[in-house]
Amino acid sequence: MLQNFKTFILLSLFFSHSLSGQNPFSAGKQETQAKPDSVVVQVQPIPVADIISASTEAFTLITESGKNRLTEDEIKSYSTQNDTLYSVIDLFLNDSSFQSFEGFGIRELEKTQLKANIYANQLTDLQDDLSKRSKGSENVVDDLIHERKRWQLTLEHSMEDEIPDVLLDRMKRIISGIDSAGTILQEDIELLLVQLDKLTGKRIALDSFQERIKNEKLRLGENLFSRDMDGFFKELSNLNDSTLIQRHIIHVVNSVKSDLQVLKSQFRTPLIFIIFIFSLLLTFSYWYKRNYSQMISEKEFDLSEIHLKLIDAPFLVVLFLTTFMIRFLFPDLPYTFKAFNSIIFIIPVLMIAMRLFESLVRSWLRWLILIYLFMVLYELISYPDIILRIILLALSSISFGLFLWLVLKKHGAGGLKNNFIYHLLRTILASFTILLFVAIAGNLMGAVRMAEFFTLAPTQIFILAIAIHISTKVLDTIMFLLLASKSLQKVNVFKEEFRTIHRKSVRWINLFLWIFFAITALKILRIKESVFEWGHKVLTEGWEIGEVVITPGSIFTFIFVIWLSIFISKAVRDILEKDVFVRVSVSKGVPNTIIMLVRIGLITGGFFLAAAAAGMELTNLSIILGAFSVGIGFGLQNIFNNMVSGLILAFERPITVGDTIQVGELMGIVLSIGFRASRIKSFDGAEVILPNGNLISNQLINWTLSDSSRRMDIRLGVAYGTDPDFVIDIMQKAAGAHEMVSNRPFPKAYFLGFGDSSLDFRLLAWTDIDHRLSVESELYLTVNKELTEAGIEIPFPQTDLHIRSDYREKE
């Protein structure tokens, strides 16, 4: 509306100048036409030396402006679309039956509102198109106005400087060309504004009409339990009317014709696209059915029975997804074709249910089919009379019998392991049974609106729940097959975290589907607007603490954005760790540093984004950060110290993931280095959470900082009389022959000296720290075997005990 108002002002100025005999683009007048939404640029005359080159640009602008003119075809198209839509909406609004909505039920009002929404969408699309076209022409006019001011100012200065007449004539031609182009574009803008004004009037009328429908629905909802027709048996006498069925047929035919016209005008392109998508998905599904064994590794990924059943039914799955997508993407689809889509939709729902849950649904599937057919028939026949009441009574009775049987036989929630959900579903089924009994009684007594609501709502919710449950199984299968495909399994993240990703993705898909079910159920129960208004009120009404306003909605938004940033940071970490840095050669420890900095950046950015999304101002944020700094000074020193220590570890890299370290008596392998603490797995198998501050402030031994070599120190003693050179040779040969012992430096044995009971030797050799204990054990065994075969004794410590007896004989 602001844009239209701006264009209207521009046109008014144009015509006022024209009527007064002045040029609409004169310099004196244009200086007062400052744009309210832009910065006014000071116009300067063109230097004489630049007039020739500037004139070329001006003529180019004039030529280009002509491309923005409305062509005869465009004018005719806009006029035809406008007049056609205007006439259709005018005919719709002037329908005599809509003057008082007498005899209209909720269902009739919803059908009428649906048509009004379709027309409103058509109006919006056409208005947007006209506004966009008008805006483009207006921008060109603004450029022409600015250009004319430059040339007018240049012409005035040139008159004083006495430049050649050739240049003066050129400037006058440019100004005349700009005036001509601007006048033509102004005429186009006027035409577009007239069309927009005409549509705006109808849009106001449509909005008022929709408000009337909303108020009428509220009135009917308040009077839901009142009688609106005569008793059922009293109206049975109307069956003798020979024109009764004929009136229904005429009504249905007219409704179908009207909906068909709307479908052709509004939904032709989307439905062609849906048919194309259906054909594409169907072709791919049949191809996948034949080749799925080559697409995934069946040995590694065991397909469940449900997966195999859905793969074996490509047509049903694609038909189910397509019809479900139509209901989701086109809520304003004409009522007749929405009912037609419902008929097609129930076919794959029931057949897939038979395939997946045959033992559960086999006993009541026929009942459900009968209920659905009666419900679709009831939706198509909207003329309120005894025939409609008979169909409604049959639908209520069959639904009541099904739900009562499910409650008594305990089949409604069979197969559920969760007792709470089982009892909840049984309670819901019992409530539906009571509502259907009340609907039957209400229909007999004449409370048809109540009977209609209590019949359709439980049945629609029950069928929707079945469809949503089948959707969870179908999407679970699609997600499993997608993640198990050989192409995605080449990515290490999907390969190593397949089960986790599948479980979490299915959990989120199910959550989304059941939220959609809850919203649709609220809409069926006609309390969606009330619940949403209550929820909006709860989320937006908060508490004022000084100048700060805290609402539940802002808290929820803040927490959600923080959670999302942490989730994204973990996903990025896994991708970098398992797919990026395994393929890129970098220095040891650099990947962990980069990953930590990326995570810190994402979480920090997420914090500020969460603060902005929650509506927190920078001044309020500074107060929070100030309080946080005070907290650091009093009670958070250790946490802040550990966080800074984590940054130091990231940049200096004294330890990296996988290093073997020793801190005091703790020795183990570094599993991860976090913001606040690091995880170390001791050689006893325990995982120790060690604050980063301890790794910085205490003495730390890194056994694998530069390399993982570890020196072995093997000592032994042999009996006196053994040749020392022979023993040294045995020890060095045993170490040198072992494949896990490094030859740089080469193993070296030493004769240490003479012990108390043996000649002592020492062998020094290097091996990888991960194999040190096993290599030491093998070397001991080898040396012992060689010494035994050579007849060399390894003595044990011997001590000679001398007992001295010194006593005097007693005399």
Overview of the structural elements:
It is a single chain. This protein is of the alpha+beta class and 811 residues long. It contains 28 helices and ten strands. Strand 5 (677-682) and strand 6 form a beta hairpin. Helix 3 packs parallel to helix 6 (165-222). The chain is extended. The termini are far apart.
Helix/strand layout:
Blueprint: H1 2-19, H2 27-30, H3 51-66, H4 72-93, H5 106-161, H6 165-222, H7 232-235, H8 244-266, H9 268-295, H10 305-311, H11 314-329, H12 335-356, H13 358-361, H14 365-380, H15 386-409, H16 419-445, H17 448-484, H18 486-489, H19 492-496, H20 498-524, H21 528-540, E1 543-545, E2 548-550, H22 552-580, H23 590-613, H24 618-634, H25 637-652, E3 660-663, E4 666-673, E5 677-682, E6 687-691, H26 692-697, E7 700-702, E8 709-718, H27 724-737, E9 748-754, E10 759-768, H28 772-789
Antiparallel strand pairs: 1-2, 3-4, 3-7, 4-5, 5-6, 8-10, 9-10
